[in-house]
């Protein structure tokens, strides 16, 4: 008898015995063993990058007991599948229903913050409460010129194994159904081995494509992604250049001193002025995120990339200079969580 069949047999036996658990009540020991087996099956599916396979065991475990550990795994499943808006709604429920579980509240506030709602998340904090001290530091890291703490929640790693010695060096943009990536050329120089990890935690090998003079002139390098990191949504660009003072959203990978995955961060703000050399400044604090990430307008259309400058600052590389991106003329506004969900599969963390 396989372990999986045995686990489901235990569950069936417990149900046939008529042992049903009320919400928030402790389960009988035999049923708790079954529940833990189900959670183990869900964790194994998530570690393989198969969130759909975690659905049945998690829903079964949730039917046995209204427990915080089950709901936190359900949140991981929703996030791993890229269902950010669904996860935000469910995280609000979990935080309210399990007030005695600090991880539930922390995950809700963290998700609000990384999806462009950091100000609202901060307003939910009790700054004088010692239990919120770690959350204050996490949320401050989204805006201040400092690395994000290593204790921040992270996607479930899967795909190609990334060695512990590797470190993230820049943000990249995935193109051509995830077969190619654009990154700042300065981050891809030399002979070091490269890896790419998309916003959902899946990693692949990366190798430099043949040099392209046009891209090199823009400060960009093209990488082959093996195997590809495909996205189900499409990326479009705005029909016209952005102007100074217009609202914009910047998506980037956080600066973490670790080979592990990290959730991208969406920052809302405004574009800066154009200098005498034609470079348009970005209105976000320096150093909070790795350069190279996409910048969007209020309709979720790409308006450029956040490129590193020689003075340590960043400037906008207009999207019109990037190859192969279709133009979208409609300007229907999108909410930050919609933008975050749609852009998540297109962003990558370059490690070397």
Automatic annotation (TrEMBL):
Give the UniProt keywords, A-Z. Answer: Signal
Which InterPro entries does the entry link to? Peptidase_S1_PA (IPR009003)
Q: What SUPFAM superfamilies does the entry give?
A: Trypsin-like serine proteases
Q: According to the UniProt entry, where is the signal peptide?
A: 1-22
Which branch of life, at top level? Bacteria
Q: What is this protein called?
A: Tetratricopeptide repeat protein
Supply the source organism for this entry.
Pelomonas cellulosilytica
């Amino acid at each position: 008898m396989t372990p999986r069949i045995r686990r489901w047999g235990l569950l069936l036996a417990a149900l046939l015995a008529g042992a049903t658990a009320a919400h928030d009540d402790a389960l009988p020991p035999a049923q708790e063993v079954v529940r833990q087996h189900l959670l183990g099956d869900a964790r194994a599916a998530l570690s393989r990058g198969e969130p759909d396979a975690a659905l049945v065991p998690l829903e079964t475990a949730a039917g046995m007991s209204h427990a915080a550990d089950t709901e936190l795994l359900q949140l991981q499943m929703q996030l791993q599948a890229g269902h950010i808006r669904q996860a935000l709604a469910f995280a609000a429920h979990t935080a309210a229903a399990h007030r005695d579980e600090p991880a539930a509240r922390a995950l809700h506030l963290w998700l609000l913050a990384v999806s462009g709602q950091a100000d609202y998340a901060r307003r939910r904090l009790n700054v004088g409460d010692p239990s919120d001290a770690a959350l204050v530091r996490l949320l401050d890291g989204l805006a201040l010129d400092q690395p994000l703490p290593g204790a921040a929640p992270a996607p479930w790693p899967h795909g190609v194994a990334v060695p512990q010695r590797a470190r993230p060096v820049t943000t990249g943009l995935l193109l051509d159904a995830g077969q190619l990536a654009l990154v700042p050329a300065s981050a891809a120089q030399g002979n070091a081995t490269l890896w790419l990890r998309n916003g959902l935690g899946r990693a692949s090998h990366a190798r430099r494509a043949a040099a392209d003079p046009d891209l090199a002139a823009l400060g960009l390098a093209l990488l082959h992604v093996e195997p590809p990191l495909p996205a189900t949504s499409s990326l479009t660009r705005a029909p016209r250049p952005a102007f100074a003072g217009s609202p914009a959203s910047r998506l980037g990978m956080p600066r973490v001193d670790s080979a592990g995955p990290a959730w991208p961060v969406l920052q809302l703000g405004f574009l800066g002025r154009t200098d005498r050399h034609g470079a348009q400044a970005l209105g976000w604090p320096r150093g909070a995120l790795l350069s190279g990430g996409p910048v969007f307008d209020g309709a979720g259309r790409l308006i450029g990339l956040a490129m590193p400058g020689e003075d340590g600052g960043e400037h906008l590389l207009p999207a019109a200079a990037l190859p192969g991106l279709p133009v979208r003329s409609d300007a229907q506004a999108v909410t930050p969580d919609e933008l975050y969900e749609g852009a998540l599969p297109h962003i990558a963390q370059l490690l070397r």
